[in-house]
Each structure stands twice: as structure tokens, then as C-alpha cells.
Amino acid sequence: MESEVTKNYLQKLFVRKIFGEKMYRRFKVLKIYLMYLLRKNYEISDFLEKLISTDFIIMDIGANLGQYLLRFHRLIKNNGKVYSFEPVEENFKILNTLKNLLHLNSAEIIRLALSNYNGESVLYIPLLESSIELDTQATINLDNYKGVKDNFRKELVKVSTIDDIVEKLGITRLDLIKSDTEGNDYKVIEGGLKTVKRFRPFIFIEENHKATWLKSLFDLEYKPYYVVNNNILKPAELVTEFDNANYDLMALIPREKIERINQLVINNVN
Q: Across-strand partners of 226?
């Protein structure tokens, strides 16, 4: 995580000092949009283009500034649906602006943090020196930052669960869950196990396949994979240090869907 903090630190510091926080965020959104227009890969987006059908119903949990939302919407067009959840207030406003400007008619932007309970919580947004916000690392799970970060901006946010959202919105199908909540994914999935059992969606989370809490999904016959070379899956237990694996979002595939996507899976060690 520290590499993310320092990766473009001087660039972030320069833009913010010269133009201010609001303009810095606008530059960031412009960069995201240009990368999308140029069809540049973002994390595992090249692989998802092969997986997602135009009628997919998707939950984009931890949407940030729309890096995945834009790509999801391009794939489903007006046939499917993307529910994007983003708790950071300023990011939520930007996502709604993008939705209106780009006519993302199949997207629903919801300002919520998802977890395993309904209520309220404090959202912690890490700050670099000079008060640069790391909104990509905002979380309601402060335990994730103990001994790592101690400077935050705080927002009070509403919290809900996947299961509750599905019931309230009357969702009758769910094909894919993408959750990137900075250390809170296990609680997000815990609050959605009823939905997972019912709809058997593809699940992409920021986690290691050896995490003990994944047993609840393994018991439901989900299998762990990593995306290799940005375009194909490999069983987690076969991935080695020599593979060009993307660990940002681990794929969990229900047993009955593995055969359907067999052409996207490497099943050998080589």
C-alpha cells in the first residue's frame, strides 16, 4: 500500500499546491476519463471485457471515481445494470456528474458504505502531508490502518448490506460483485451471503486466497483464481512467483460457472 502512496506523490503535491484540492480532483477525473476513452486497461478490466455479457447485473462496491463504472457501462450498454456504491461525498457527487454528462443510463449511483450491518459509521480518508486525500484508500475499517496511518479526514456515512440492498431495490438477478473496500471486503461479503447463495454471482475482491474467512465461500463451492497477464484466470493454488498475476482483485467463481468460462482459464502449472 505504501507504493501507492508514494507512486505519484510529487505530481499530486505539485497539482494540489498550484491549483488546490478541488482542481486536483478534477484533473484526476479527467485522467480517468482519458484512460477510459483510450481503452487503457485498469487493473483487470481487459479480462472483465471477456467475461461480462451485455445483460449483466453488477454491483460495483467502492466505486471511487468511476474507474470500473465507466468500463462496466461500456460493456453492458443499456441492456444490463450497474449499481455503484461510493461513500465519499465528493466522489459520489463526481460520479453523478459523470452519469449525467456521459448519459450512463444503466448506472445507479448510491452513497453508502457496505458492510455486515445496517446503521452509520465513520469513514476514514487517509491524508498525506499537506493534507492530500487518499480517497482511493477510504475505509470504515480503521483496524486496517493500525500502525500504518494516523492522519485522516472523517465523514459520517450510512452503512448497509448487500442482502438489504437487494431486498429494498427488488433486485431479482445479480451476475457480478466487485468489491474494493480497503480491508472491509470480508464484511461486505458476510453481509451478502444470502444473496450469494441465491444468485451465485462472479465475485472479485481485494484479498489473498489463503484468508480464513473465505471458507464461507468455499463451502458454497466457490473456487479462487487470479488474473494472469491481464487476460486469463489461473487457479490460485497454481499461481507462482513467476506468473504475471494481478492480485488487486481475486476472482471467486462458482463451481457450476467454471465450465462456461473454460476458455478463460489456465488449468496447468506452466
A: 234
Run of H or E residues at 232? strand 232-235
Q: Are 237 and 209 in contact (CB under 8 A)?
A: yes
How many angstroms separate the Cα of 57 from the Cα of each of 73, 93, 109, 140? 11, 23, 14, 26
Beta strand spans in 165-216 (E): 176-179, 202-205
Domains of the chain by start residue, with CATH: 2-264 (3.40.50.150)
| Band of pLDDT at residue 2, cut at 50, 70 and 90 | very low
Q: Edge-to-edge strands of the sheet including 119-128? A: 113-114, 152-160, 119-128, 132-133
CA–CA distance, 247 with 268 (Å, rounded to integer): 19
How far apart are the C-alpha atoms of 155 and 88, rounded to whole Å?
Answer: 8
What is the per-residue pLDDT across 183-192, written as a single tens digit (0 to 9) for each? 899 999 999 9
Any bridge partners for residue 56, and if so which?
Answer: none
Q: Do residues 215 and 207 lie in contact, with contact meaning Cβ atoms separated by under 8 Å?
A: no
What stretch of H or E contains 183?
A: none
